Amino acid sequence: MTPNDRQPPMPGEAVGEATMVDLPSVRRLEAVGFRAWPAAFVQYDGSWLIRLTAGHDSKRLNCVNPLDPSDHRDIALRLEKAAKLFAEYGRLLTVRQTPLTPPQMVAYMDGEGWTPFSHSLVFSLDLAERDLGEGMDHLPIKDVGRFIDARILIGKEDPEIKAALTEIINSIKPECGLFLFEDRELGPTAVSLVVQDNDLAGIMQFAVAEAVRRRGVGRALLDASLRWARLRGAKKAWLQVEADNRAAIELYRKAGFTEVYRYLYRTPKV
């Protein structure tokens, strides 16, 4: 493996805990991840994928994504051009650093004092290794608006993002499953969006209401999401989770998910 196949440790880990990654797997999961959560504006600068979305502040929808470790020409100039494009959208230039980011670009950002934040993990699961049963005890709903209302309520997000979320979900091209758990007294308790892209299924927008956490609701929702994906031909599931979300990481690891790679975001020193 090349030096760039070794990932930096997450906050709180010792240097020796850095892990090795399989770059072909990273490339494939990055590609399906972009299709699963599409940006309104997409532009390539060489192999750098620039994604911007005026109506939503999601970091994944507003960042530069280097996709080839060998594409490191004119780093400062290209970042300057990208910064102007981000400014047109009223956003600060943000780079998403993954194992595909050129080491020279990482060194440049280090030298310029760029701020790292929002460390995340990407997990995957071989669905053949899970006994999910054959039947479906929970079916996805068709009402996108109802799903988004529940997601906003559970996540305690600004209701004004509903229009942007609706546009994003409606623009997803692969088949989607919208899962919603509800309680007669509590209302919406859990949601997940499953995006099936050929043999891969992404678990997105996964959220469980605080009032029902640690009661098995999250595991039931995850199983229902995975069961639906497998019945439609998915062989492997994947998801992304922020590194400081310990409860979610525990849930996913107990369900059999294992880490594939890590990423973080960086912005220029202000």
From TrEMBL:
Return the Gene3D superfamilies for the record: 3.40.630.30
Q: Which Pfam families does the annotation name?
A: Acetyltransf_1 (PF00583)
Keyword list, A-Z: Acyltransferase, Transferase
> Does the record's keyword annotation contain Acyltransferase?
yes
Q: Where is the N-acetyltransferase domain?
A: 136-270
PANTHER family the record matches: ACETYLTRANSFERASE, N-ACETYLTRANSFERASE DOMAIN-CONTAINING PROTEIN
Q: Can you name this protein?
A: GNAT family N-acetyltransferase
Instruction: Please name the taxonomic classification of the source.
Output: Bacteria, Pseudomonadati, Pseudomonadota, Alphaproteobacteria, Hyphomicrobiales
